[in-house]
Amino acid sequence: MTSILEAVKATAALRPQALALIDGKIAVSYETMWYEIAQVAGRLRSLGEANGAVGLYMDNCPAWAVLDLAFVKLGWPCVPLPVFFTEAQRQHAVNQAGVRFLVTDCEVPGWRGAVTFRVFDSLYYFYSIEREAAKLPENAAKVTFTSGSTGQPKGVCLPQARLEQVANSLVAAIGTNYAGVHCAVLPLPVLLETVAGLYPVLLAGGTYYVRPQALLGFEKGLAPDFSMLVQALIESDTTSAILVPGILRGLCQTLEAERLSLPALKLLAVGGARVDGALLKKAQALGLPVFQGYGLSEAGSVVALNTPHANRLGSVGRSLPGAGVELAADGEILLQKPAFAGYLGQETTPECFATGDIGHFDADGYLYIDGRKSARLITAFGRNVSPEWVESELISQPEISQALVFGEAAPALGSLLVPSTKNVTTMQIEEAVARANGALPDYARIQHWSRVEPFSTANNLLTANGRLRRMAIHEKYQDLMVCSLEIQG
């Protein structure tokens, strides 16, 4: 039995009525959760032998957690499918992973012959399809599809033991005293929420607050309702959550505008993309206990993390035990013996994984992320510029929500800018850019900018963890960016 199942079973025996899962309507004790995992696993086994991957396609809810652990108990490789994936991306993932069974909370067009079953008195669908199962590594328990910087997601195969190693390392680094009520703000198919949220909470005997995304304000991907999120965090007395930078920014703006606070919060982990220092300072000024981290799917989601016991602003913390973090001569972050078991369609796993991220350590072992190796720009004057560096200065201005910097082989840099609200004027953006330029050397200053619509998962310009899909953005705004550079030339 795996450590996560052992932990749920142990808590069910020692504190049977302790709350494991809540969603605002139902409250599930550890005793009930353990019983339900066993019942669901038995029901699924009676429906067929997986003999391949099984897809899990549903919104956040208590049943998601039970189904995930039922798959672990059965030894069925699970493919979590984000609801924000386009139909084409979802079909790509299903085909690549050779998904033969699909468990979902809704009827899916194109899939027939569903058998229904219940979890916590709610109805779910079990579909099967005749297809050849994809060849997965023997120890693959999860196949997570990374959003990446390009269109089609890539399947990363991960052993359950390594995922739980990361989760246990997080519990050891943070401490069980912080396992109060954890709110699942991110979608559970995003590996970060499962490995750094759900698993550590259950390992530590805490309570996992998991509601559908729409009830947290994320029904409209382009325009999240952060007031709903704040109210949910207040009403649930949330003590911990995981955010990406865009959500942290919206949370800070809402708390400030509505003059609210979150006194129950003890730990707010933020990662997935670079966080600018001004945003971290703003969060701290609002009383938010923010701790920045760093990771990637190939490493089991978390590589390094600041904690309440060891926190250094601007860094992503110290690396977790077993992460195997080293730096190449050019500063690229390397992982020795990474957690994943390989990509779908590839036979071998590298002994050393090059992350593509550039970073450095300080004298005390704190890791800093300087940018993406592939994103580096070389201007017409031979200057090397990390666009994330310039972008962080731009989005530190309250008028600017998102920014993409470009200018490869050009005499000056340009930027696509997304204002923080629709009411921000052209003059206000000009002033914000001027302030950002004041903190930058001449060669890294923005000489031309264009106002664009928000980058989001809905328009396929943003990954689930908040990173810019640079290639997709360049393709969409190619004419605008070429025009900008011609103006500068």
The SS-based structural class is alpha/beta
Strand order of the largest sheet: 2-1-11-10-12-13-14-15-16
What CATH calls the topology of the largest domain is Rossmann fold
The CATH superfamily of the largest domain is identified as ANL, N-terminal domain
Q: What proportion strand? A: 15-25%
Number of domains: 2
Kindly provide the radius of gyration, computed on alpha-carbon positions and rounded to a whole number of angstroms: 22 Å
Question: What's the rounded overall pLDDT mean?
Answer: 89
Largest sheet features: 9 strands, mixed
By CATH reckoning, the class of the largest domain would read Alpha Beta
Number of helices: 13
Task: Please give the number of β-strands.
Answer: 26
Distance between the termini: 64 Å
Can you put this structure into words, describing what you see?
This protein has 489 residues and is of the alpha/beta class. The chain has two domains: 3-368, ANL, N-terminal domain (Rossmann fold, 3-Layer(aba) Sandwich); 376-488, GMP Synthetase, Chain A, domain 3. 32% of the residues lie in helices and 24% in strands. It has helices spanning 3-14, 30-47, 62-74, 87-97, 160-174, 191-203, 226-235, 245-258, 277-285, 387-395, 426-438, 470-476, 478-488, and strands spanning 19-22, 27-29, 54-57, 78-80, 101-104, 115-119, 122-128, 140-146, 154-159, 181-183, 207-209, 240-243, 267-270, 290-294, 304-305, 318-319, 325-327, 332-336, 342-343, 352-361, 367-372, 377-378, 384-385, 400-406, 413-419, 446-451. The protein has a nine-stranded mixed beta sheet, sandwiched between helices. The protein has a five-stranded mixed beta sheet with strand order 4-3-5-7-6, with helices on both faces. Strands 17-18-20-21 form a four-stranded antiparallel beta sheet. The radius of gyration is 22 Å and the shape is globular. 51% of the residues are buried. The model is unreliable at 483-489 (pLDDT under 50).
